[in-house]
Amino acid sequence: MVALDRARPAKIRVRLVGPHVLINQALGQLLSALPGFELAPDEAESSVWQADLVLLILPELSDLEPFIRQHPQARVLLLSLDWTPAEARIALQAGAAGCLDFDQPAEALGRALHQAARGEVELSDASGVKVVIRLGAGEWLDVAALLAAFRATTR
Fold first, then answer.
1. Model confidence over 44-86: pLDDT tens digits?
2. Which of 15, 23, 60, 101 has CB 3.0 to 4.6 Å from 124, enough for a Cys bridge?
3. 105 and 45 in contact (C-beta within 8 Å)?
4. How far apart are the first and last CA of the chain?
5. Per DSSP, what are the bridge partners of residue 12?
């Protein structure tokens, strides 16, 4: 009997980028403890390209577009204390893959990162945030309106 070679699935490589060393270290330890993740090395700026995801903490949302222009291949998720609907929309329009807030358990962060790695848009459950998905250049799908229309047709 021949044994099948069942390779372990590749881990999702996450690069942490933010202005606070302590927060980056704590998030790094947290992500290292979650199954399916590993930290991309941060010795050099080129390591962003070696990551599947970039978890970015920005003091100012205006810093997002320049970061994405500098790293167009990076799949960027933003982490913040809270999000307004306007900020979430600005971040998604600038090219972010998602907007997450700090007020969630580690497992929820892990699920959000797995979803983003699969190409799904992730938004925290902040009240009033309108969920939208970018379809293409300038095209947006209003998920809430789509779900409301679906529910209305299935009653």
1. 555 556 788 999 988 788 888 898 888 888 888 888 887 777 8
2. 101
3. no
4. 54
5. 37
Count CB-CB contacts under 10 A for residue 46. 8
The answer to whether residues 16 and 41 touch, using CB atoms and an 8 Å cutoff, is: no
Which residue, 123, 37, 121, 43, is CA-closest to 79?
Answer: 123
pLDDT of residue 22: 92
Q: Which amino acid is at 128?
A: G
pTM of the full structure: 0.70
Name the residue with tokens 């060393």: 21
Query: Could you tell me which of 135, 100, 95, 102 has the C-alpha nearest to residue 114?
Result: 100
C-beta neighbour count of 97 within 10 angstroms: 23
Tell me the domains of the chain and their CATH numbers: 12-128 (3.40.50.2300)
- Tell me the average pLDDT across 30-46: 80
Strand, helix or coil for residue 112: helix
Write out the two tokens for 106.
């580690």
Q: Closest Cα to residue 97, out of 28, 39, 51?
A: 51
The string of pLDDT tens digits covering residues 142-151 is 555 555 565 6
